[in-house]
TrEMBL record:
Domain of life: Bacteria
Origin species: Actinopolymorpha cephalotaxi
Lineage of the species this protein comes from: Bacteria, Bacillati, Actinomycetota, Actinomycetes, Propionibacteriales
InterPro entries: DUF402, FomD-like_sf
Record Pfam families: DUF402
Gene3D superfamilies recorded: FomD-like
Protein name per its UniProtKB record: DUF402 domain-containing protein
Limits of the DUF402 domain: 78-189
Length: 227
């Protein structure tokens, strides 16, 4: 059972990191919206500075698939990448994650507070660190339009990740189970697809979260979110 003193205070900064084989792939500071036994909700918005691989393409890049295939995934296999500071420039993003699950939900909001799009991001279960949470993106996403239309994204990356052993067979099995779970929840319009978070607005008094100086120092002891 998770110790209650490990909960992050609302409004505090947590760092969400993708970590592979002991090396940080990304590090992004978020503000905590809510942290309970059943849910971690965090937010980021335009202007936040984060760390990402030098050759990581933007979501909107027309060459994204090519760069991921020819540069990003081979770098992951070799453990050879350098991090650079990037500025979050798109929408306000609210991330919702339940303990022990192999997926989280990202809700993207426009400048007027309207829901623009949602992503189901398949990833390793979050683990708490002294500065936030660690995970690793397992390369597959489900994109959901506000009207409920959905589209699978990055399936070719997922296949290549398995061939390169970035995604293990055990992780792939968990992702397949998580896919079915997410689709069932979406079909039933159950949480987190039941619109209860669609009216969320960030606190205007919150300043931009920033990365601590030890953002890339991977702790040697970490526990699964919710334990």
């Amino acid at each position: 059972m998770r110790c209650t003193d490990r909960a992050f205070a609302t409004g505090s900064t947590v760092v969400r990191r993708d970590v592979l084989r002991g090396k940080v792939w990304t590090a992004t500071p978020f503000r905590v919206v809510s942290d309970t036994r059943d849910l971690l909700a965090v937010a980021i918005w335009p202007g936040v500075s984060r760390l990402a691989p030098t050759h990581q393409p933007a979501l909107s890049s027309s060459r994204r698939e090519e760069i991921v295939r020819d540069v990003a995934l081979p770098n992951l296999v070799n453990g050879k990448w350098e991090l650079t500071a990037l500025t979050w420039q798109t929408h306000t993003k609210l991330t919702l994650v339940e303990p022990g699950t192999y997926f989280g939900v990202d809700l993207f909001f426009g400048a007027a507070g309207e829901l623009v799009i949602s992503y189901v991001n398949f990833q390793r279960p979050f683990r708490r660190t002294p500065i936030g949470v660690d995970t690793f993106d397992l390369l597959l996403d489900l994109v959901i339009e506000p009207d409920g239309t959905c589209l699978w994204k990055d399936e070719l990356e997922d296949d290549q990740g398995r061939r390169l052993d970035i995604v293990t067979e055990d992780e792939h099995r968990h992702v397949q189970e998580a896919r079915e779970q997410a689709l069932a929840l979406l079909d039933q319009r159950s949480w987190p697809f039941d619109e209860r978070w669609h009216s969320w607005r960030r606190e205007t008094r919150w300043e931009l979260p920033t990365l601590p100086v030890n953002a890339t120092a991977v702790p040697t002891e970490w526990s699964e979110l919710g334990d």
